Amino acid sequence: MLKMNNISKLYQTEMVQTHALRDFNLHVEEGEFIAVTGPSGSGKTTFLNIAGMLEPFSSGQYLLDGIDVGKLNDNQRADVRNQKIGFIFQGFNLIPDLNLYENIEVPLRYRGIKANERKRRIEQCLEQVGLASRAKHLPQQLSGGQQQRVAIARALAGKPRFLLADEPTGNLDSLMARQVMELLEQINRDGATIIMVTHDPELARRAPRNIQVVDGQLADFTLYQGAQTLKNVAGV
Amino acid sequence: MLEIKPIFHALCRSKIGAILLLLQIAITTAIVSNAAFIIEDKVSYLSQETGYPEDEIFSFHVMLFGNDVESHQQFELDETMLRGLPNVIDAVYISNTPLSGSGSSSDFSINPAPEPGLSARTAYFFTDDHALNTLGLELASGRNFNESEVIVTDNNEQRANVTIITQTLADELFSDTDALGKTVYLGDIALKIVGIIKKAKGPWMKDSRPDNVALIPYINPNISGNFIVRTDVKQRAQLASTIEDEMLKSYDKRVIIRVRGLDEAKENYMAQDTLMMRMLIVLITILVLVTALGIFGLTLFNISKRTKQIGTRRALGARKSAIINYFLVENAMICTAGLILGVIAALLLGQLLMQHFSIAALPPSYIAGTALMVFVMSLLAVFGPAKRAANISPSIATRSI
Ligand SMILES: Nc1ncnc2c1ncn2[C@@H]1O[C@H](COP(=O)(O)OP(=O)(O)OP(=O)(O)O)[C@@H](O)[C@H]1O
Ligand SMILES: [Mg+2]
Q1: Are B328 and B383 a contacting pair, CB within 8 Å?
Q2: Residue nearest to atom 26 of ligand 1 (CA)
């Protein structure tokens, strides 16, 4: 469902040019759960941002569900993000002035979903992350792990087929991290494709497929990858 | 797509900035609507018709110090001399200059004092049969004074017995009959109305009866007198500059002062009002600008405070237009609340001004107009910053912690 062919990303600042990605190639099939690891500054976030259309790339081709992303205009990219992609951020990125219910409502409103359908979905998602009784609370009244679960509920509410997470457990202790990981695994079993950047080798190992970004390129991992995929297929 | 409810909730949770802005909008609306009304009132007062060709007329004051002439006789000679000067259309002795702020007034009654009867406050000028022509006044009915009706004297027992009054005064004293031919009384002096002037202002534009004016053909000056001269617009300045020499040429034991155009005299009289009007204009301009800046600044501040949130919204699928709408709706909500408060404050302020400064009641159209203006201005002020917010990159969501 995701195909990146020779994607490059060049950051140009006054002082330096940074090749954050260089001839980056990746194919992701529907239903995969991929953990992305790599040294700091190697380009993981850049890759995820391009995959999520949060920033443009300099050259190459990126197809998402057969759509050539490079040919979309700004409004179309916003609509694709809204309909197909769910984001989970390291810093949770909940809107501080909105309560949990309203936070989860944000992407649904952008999609123009009717109020009663929104209500149904929000309650279902809050249930799923175990925070149904907290709908009226503000983000600051929750622990980090709870906030991240709200953020996951927000990402899920739009029923995205594609979930992108940049260090979703980076700000959490290991117990909380495991809870979040279990939630993601559940979501993956329900059919969503997940790409997760993480620094935690233990969590990465739990993902069926691992890729490593080094210096803006995929490290050669083909054998390992093949084995993982086989295991994955067998496991289903 | 409008998100009124969540925007409202978000506002309620961080409300200090919004409340300050709301108050500013309310105060602006209250002050601007009242000030605009006062300005409009002043403008119509300052620009009203006086009935005189002001730019063709100038006046001057004469004070005699030689005692070898009789002043009433000298002034008769002066009138003749002035009328003979080149470019002079007409000239006349008159006890005071209209519009100038100094003059005489009294109650004109339909019965002789002390009999009670209908009376009206009236400004009167002692002058002669050249006054109508010199002042450029038009008769609605009746006639000018005859030469024989003009009393020129130094004997206080001698009195005039006719008058010409304005239509306004005629209507006030004789509301259901024709005033022409009737008699009015200045104290116990009976004056028969021989003519009615269409329109003329007395010395005081701010008077309660600025249009009640009577001319009386009576010249009994003391040592000082007042003249007005009518000429061509283009000749006036030149003529006014030579008038002192001409007057002294015919008799030099006297001084000529206050040579000035009728429009100048009027401006002098109105100077305070003009100043007040200008100050009010400056005040409301500053007020509106400050409010606009306040809205602009608050929006910029809100945007910088919410950069990450805006990036997140964009990541979650907000189009640029949705971000712009967010700020416009938020501002419109603050503005509407401010305007509701402002309208109430404007009405209260208007009432206060009415009680303490005898200003007419503030018409609702001024409040509505001001409110609309403030609303449009606030949307304009917020639009620029909102567009800037819409250009925040969605990648902020992952790049900033
Ligand atoms: N906006 C930018 N302008 C210039 N350079 C940038 C920008 N964003 C990222 N970079 C550079 O691109 C490179 C890749 O950055 P990226 O954030 O993708 O790394 P990362 O793998 O996510 O690192 P970390 O594990 O620390 O999060 C880095 O060298 C970074 O300095
Ligand atoms: Mg990163």
Answers
A1: yes
A2: A40
